[in-house]
Design brief:
alpha/beta; Nucleotidyltransferase, domain 5; 4 domains; 5-stranded mixed beta sheet; 26% strand
C-alpha cells in the first residue's frame, strides 16, 4: 500500500522498518506491521544504551493517527534485552513511551485538538475514548513540565476559573512577559495556602525577579502577593476597581437620598441609581438632565462621580517615558509625575 510510503516520509524511525499494511478483518481499521531493521541493536529502556537481545514478547498494538477515517494500528513484537546494567528489560521503541497504547504522535495529535474542542468532542471526532484523550493530555503536560525552563519570569498574571458545579475554583498563574505567554501553574481552590504553592514551586530566587503582577482584588491573592512579591508592581484588574467604585458611589447616593428625605427636601436622588452608575455615553438623553440636577442640588455624590469620570477617561492616557508607578490592567494609567526639586 501507499501508506507505507507515507509513513516512511512523515514518521520514519531509525532502526525499524514498516513491513506490511493491510485492512483488519473488520474492514474498519488499518494494521501496519513493524519489524527491526536487520543489524540494528535494541535499546535498553532503563539506561538507553544498546544491549543484546534476550527474547520476544507477544505482539502489541499501538494506536496511530487515524487516516481517511480509518483507525491505524502499528503491530510490533517487543524485544527483551539483557543489559549488563539493568538486567533483562523490555526494549525502548521511538514511537511509544512505557506501557502506553497510543503512539507519541497520536497523543500529541489528540492533545492539540483537545485545546480547541472539549475532550468528549475530541474523542467522538476521532473515534476514540475520553480516557485516551485524558491520557494524551496528561502525557503532553507531563513532558512539558519536565522540559520547561523557569530561568526568567518578569511578569505573571493570577486568576481563578470555576469548574464543576458549585463554588469550586482553580487558581491559574500565567507568565505574561512581552511576546511570551504560557501557563505556569494550576492549584486547587483560591486560598492563601493554594496560591503559596506556586511560590514554593518556583523558589525565592525566581520570585524576587518578578517585576509585575496582574490580578483581581480577591483578598487571598492580595495578601500572598504582598508577602512574596513586595518588590513587584501590582497591577489591579480595571473591572474590579470600577465595581468597587460603583458600590461606594451607590452607598453615598443612598445615604444622601435618605438624608434629603429626612430634611424635607425634594427626593431628587430617588430612583437615580443607574443615572449615577451608568457611563454618560450609555445614559439615555432623558436621564442626562436629571443627573445634572442631582449634582447641582447636593455636593456629596458629585465628588465620587467626578472621581469615576476621571478614572474612566484615564484609559486614553499613554505612559510617558520612564518607569511607571501605578498601572491597572486594560490600560496604563501613570500617576502624575513628581515635580522636580
Amino acid at each position: 500500500m501507499e501508506l507505507i510510503r507515507i509513513l516512511n516520509h512523515c514518521h520514519r524511525h531509525r532502526g525499524f522498518v514498516y513491513q506490511h499494511a493491510r485492512f483488519a478483518a473488520d474492514q474498519q481499521s488499518i494494521e501496519v506491521d513493524v519489524r527491526p531493521r536487520v543489524g540494528s541493536a535494541a535499546i535498553c529502556s532503563g539506561c538507553h544504551q544498546p544491549a543484546p537481545g534476550y527474547d520476544h514478547l507477544p505482539q502489541r498494538r499501538f494506536e496511530f493517527i487515524p487516516l481517511w477515517g480509518f483507525l491505524v494500528f502499528l503491530l510490533y513484537r517487543m524485544r527483551r534485552v539483557e543489559c549488563r546494567n539493568c538486567g533483562v528489560v523490555v526494549e525502548e521503541v521511538p514511537w511509544c513511551d512505557g506501557k502506553h497504547q497510543l503512539t507519541r504522535a497520536y497523543m500529541l495529535f489528540l492533545a492539540r485538538w483537545a485545546r480547541k474542542l472539549s475532550w468528549k468532542e475530541t474523542a467522538e471526532s476521532f473515534h476514540t475514548s475520553w480516557d485516551k484523550v485524558c491520557d494524551a493530555v496528561e502525557y503532553v503536560v507531563g513532558w512539558g513540565l519536565e522540559h520547561r525552563t523557569l530561568q526568567s519570569i518578569r511578569a505573571i498574571g493570577v486568576d481563578e476559573i470555576q469548574y464543576a458545579k458549585g463554588h469550586k475554583y482553580l487558581t491559574l498563574v500565567y507568565q505574561i512577559d512581552q511576546g511570551f505567554t504560557r501557563l505556569l501553574w494550576v492549584g486547587k481552590e483560591r486560598t492563601i495556602e493554594s496560591f503559596q504553592g506556586f511560590f514554593t514551586v518556583i523558589g525565592e530566587q525566581l520570585a524576587s525577579q518578578i517585576e509585575f503582577v496582574c490580578s483581581d482584588m480577591w483578598q487571598p491573592y492580595l495578601e500572598v502577593i504582598r508577602q512574596k512579591c513586595s518588590q513587584a508592581l501590582h497591577i489591579l484588574d480595571r473591572f474590579h476597581i470600577v465595581a468597587k467604585m460603583n458600590k461606594a458611589l451607590d452607598e453615598v447616593r443612598a445615604a444622601e437620598s435618605r438624608k434629603m428625605a429626612q430634611e424635607g427636601h425634594e427626593p431628587l436622588l430617588k430612583k437615580s441609581r443607574w443615572c449615577v452608575l451608568k457611563r454618560k455615553k450609555t445614559l439615555p438623553r432623558s436621564r442626562i438632565s436629571g443627573c445634572a440636577s442631582c449634582s447641582a442640588t447636593t455636593s456629596r455624590p458629585s465628588a465620587p462621580i467626578s472621581s469615576k469620570k476621571i478614572f474612566s477617561s484615564s484609559g486614553n492616557i499613554t505612559r510617558p517615558p520612564g518607569p511607571p508607578t501605578s498601572w491597572t490592567s486594560g490600560a496604563i494609567k501613570p500617576c502624575a509625575p513628581a515635580s522636580s526639586p
